[in-house]
Amino acid sequence: MKRYLYLVFLLVVAAGAFLAGSWYSHRQPDAGSDSKERRVLYYVDPMNPVHASDKPGIAPCGMPMEPVYADGGSSPGQSNEMAGMPPGTVRIGGDWQQLFGVKVATVEKKAMPQTIRILGRVAVDETRIYRINAATDGWIKKRLPVTTGSLVRKDELLATFYAPEFFSAMKAYLYGLRSLERFQKSGTETKEQLESTDANIENYRNALRNLGMTEHQLDEIRQSRQGGEHVEIRAPAAGFVQTRNITLGERFQKGTELYRIADLKHVWILADIFENEEKFIKPGAIARVFLIHRNAALTATVSNIIPQFDPVSRTLNVRLDVDNPNFVLKPDMFVDVDFPVSYPPAVTAPIDAIIDSGLRNTVFVDLGNGFFEPRKVETGWRSGDRVEIINGLSPGERIVVSGGFLIDSESRMKAASAGIDLLSTDPICGYSVNKNQARAEGRTSAYRGKTYYFFSDKCKESFEKDPDQALSSPPRAQSLAPATPDDGTRHD
């Protein structure tokens, strides 16, 4: 029995030794492989790449620290294809791209016809407002059922009033008319006498007109040769009554506004535009006016841009003229105003392609073979679903327009493990440089208490020849950088 147990113990020990040797042989790289030639920069926690150390060991998560190599790999078995790629570059296979919903589009530079849509407010055309003011003191004797908001016709009777000042002027007017009539019947008056009588009649007529009598009533008196006690108030033009300040029997004073009538066949639309939009909207420009909650559109013309800047809203006021058929536009109604404009040729990208962190705008450039590079860009105007790219992209490059946020998550993890938070800008070549990698390869230089990091040895040598000149001049970019075709490296 003891012998049997001893044999079982030997078999278990042998099996354990075999398994341990097999595991060790898989963990150790082949002596003839390229892994021994790869230089380790530092070690990172596999569960939290931000936690790094210059020595191997056990991470806080309990797992072994993983090495980060100078060629960009994070494990001995990783391909060297990442070597030379810009920091944060990730590789995503076709299956994962499909799962992420990744879509790419080619960057183009072209003119972009766009539409600027702003909110407008309908206003009465100031040149079509008619105010009926009292030219003398009087009393309202009759009023018709015309109230605020009523549509009136031209020369429609609105009210009548009594004023003593009219009697003397009216008697003189009637006397002149009757005298002219007698002269014409007798035929004895000379031409000069007739012309003098006509001139006197016109003076009497002007006196009544200045007191507030309408042309309609003056013509009636001329035809009937009879005057009345009351003076008529008639509408000077067709339109809507905006104000009515009369009451039956009310006494009014000279200068009182009795009625205000607005002609709404033609109205204004007032809209506010921002400073950067003024160059696209000029007097004479055509716009489309859309009525909110109505399936209707009208054509308007920019008549004026009021040269007064609103410091609160930071806008300029634009005035448009528009015909108002069937009075569909009411004063103070809100409408949408569309200005068709054409921006000059520019590099643009879909707004969904921009990942805005609050501090920088990033797009992902498709480098081919599943590699995606995070690229910082500067943006300009935005119109609709597109945004202008001022710097960072060139026509012909392909960028991610869908699924970018998932790629961004992968890139941030990759960037953290590669030490992208420790980036520095080469003062000579202008490239972003990983401090740890530059330090490991000896591409650093200390000057006046500050350490500078370089993309290549040539950049470092150029800096050390004349540091003051190098720091006072803009980077020379590719002139000193080594040629690395198709590696995705780019001036930031």
Strand-residue proportion: 35-45%
Shape: rod-shaped
CATH class of the domain at 347-479: Mainly Beta
How many extended strands?
Answer: 28
Category from helices, strands and their pairing = alpha+beta
How large is the radius of gyration?
Answer: 44 Å
Describe the protein.
- The protein is α+β, with helices and mostly antiparallel strands and 492 residues long.
- Among the domains are: 28-83, no CATH class; 131-259, no CATH class; 347-479, Beta Barrel (conserved putative lor/sdh protein from methanococcus maripaludis s2 fold), CATH 2.40.420.20.
- Helices cover 24% and strands 36% of the residues.
- The chain is built from nine helices and 28 strands.
- The protein has helices spanning 2-27, 94-100, 165-186, 191-210, 215-224, 404-417, 435-440, 457-465, 467-472, and strands at 40-45, 48-53, 66-69, 90-91, 103-106, 108-124, 129-133, 138-143, 151-152, 157-162, 231-234, 239-244, 251-252, 257-262, 266-274, 286-291, 297-310, 315-323, 334-350, 355-356, 361-368, 371-383, 386-391, 398-402, 423-425, 432-434, 444-447, 450-453.
- The strands form seven sheets. Strands 6-15-18-17-16-19 form a six-stranded antiparallel beta barrel. Strands 7-14-12-9 form a four-stranded antiparallel beta sheet, with no helix packed on it. Strands 11-10-8-13 form a four-stranded antiparallel beta sheet, with no helix packed on it.
- The two termini are 77 Å apart.
- 23% of the residues are buried.
